[in-house]
Amino acid sequence: MVKIWGSAEELHLLPGDCDTEKYKCIRVYMKPDNSLVGVFMSKSAEPPHYYVIDGSQEMYYKTRAEAIGYCISKGYADKTEN
């Protein structure tokens, strides 16, 4: 559960909720401390690269599998809804 503005409801996110001008959000994960981690795909690069924001860390990966693998290896819970 994530508390947002005093709400006790479970967090539901669509990937598009976190898109930026340069990156499309493809996954949202939750850490054990309830902070969020985003996995993004570049919109204009060919081939695309992947960008993970984990707190104050920003990491870039060549493949989607590597970016998602980082989150899975940390034990983060997938909160993305399709």
For the record, give the distance between the C-alpha atoms at the N and C termini, rounded to a whole number: 19 Å
Estimated radius of gyration: 13 Å
Please outline the major beta sheet.
5 strands, antiparallel
Low-confidence stretches are 1-8
Q: How is the largest sheet built, in terms of strand order? A: 4-3-2-1-5
What overall form do the CA principal axes indicate?
A: globular
Range of strand content = 25-35%
Description:
The chain has 82 residues and is mainly beta. 12% of the residues lie in helices and 33% in strands. It has one helix and five strands; from the N terminus they run ββββαβ. It has a five-stranded antiparallel β-sheet with strand order 4-3-2-1-5, with helices on one face. The model is unreliable at 1-8 (pLDDT under 50).
Helices and strands, with pairings:
Blueprint: E1 23-30, E2 36-42, E3 50-54, E4 57-61, H1 64-73, E5 77-78
Antiparallel strand pairs: 1-2, 1-5, 2-3, 3-4
Which properties best describe this structure?
82 residues; mainly beta; five-stranded antiparallel beta sheet; 1 helix; 12% helix; 33% strand; globular
What's the quick description here?
The protein is mainly beta and 82 residues long.
